[in-house]
């Protein structure tokens, strides 16, 4: 009897672990098209909209959000002077944490002079959507 109960307990634990792993696997990662659209806001110079994609700006003051947009604009201007500015991006890799609540998204940014660089966009999952961190 004890052996039967032990086997049932072992199977229940194993099945519970398998279901948890299946749920984790089903948890979506940041969508490549969504990430490209978010970074596309920066590429197109829509810095206010880019800042609105940032979860960290949700509870910030309007003045702070304007300052963030101004910093992105300044960086963009420097990139235009340096290499013609960003013209495209593509997602290379998404590295989530174990719980899939945070991800490091590696993006290759192509510039007008055909040079490129790899950047990392930290993202956080809020409910069912992913936001820039």
Features:
four-stranded antiparallel β-sheet; alpha+beta; 133 residues; 4 strands; 49% helix; 4 helices; Nuclear Transport Factor 2, Chain: A; 27% strand
Can you describe what's shown?
- The protein has 133 residues and is an alpha+beta fold.
- The chain has one domain (35-132): Nuclear Transport Factor 2, Chain: A.
- It has helices at residues 2-26, 32-43, 47-52, 62-83; strands at 86-96, 102-111, 116-126, 129-132.
- The radius of gyration is 21 Å and the shape is flat.
- The termini are far apart.
Main beta sheet strand tally, sense and closure: 4 strands, antiparallel
Distance between the termini: 54 Å
Examine the coordinates and then state which fold CATH places here, giving the name of the CATH topology.
Nuclear Transport Factor 2, Chain: A
Average pLDDT taken over every residue: 87
Number of helices: 4
Question: Which class in CATH terms?
Answer: Alpha Beta
Helix content: 40-55%
* Rg calculated over all Cα atoms: 21 Å
State the domain count: 1
Number of strands: 4
Strand order of the largest sheet: 1-2-3-4
Q: Topology as H/E string? A: HHHHEEEE
**What is the molecular shape?**
flat
Structure summary:
With 133 residues, the chain is α+β, with helices and mostly antiparallel strands. Helix content is 49%, strand content 27%.
Write the layout of secondary structure elements.
Layout: H1 2-26, H2 32-43, H3 47-52, H4 62-83, E1 86-96, E2 102-111, E3 116-126, E4 129-132
Antiparallel strand pairs: 1-2, 2-3, 3-4
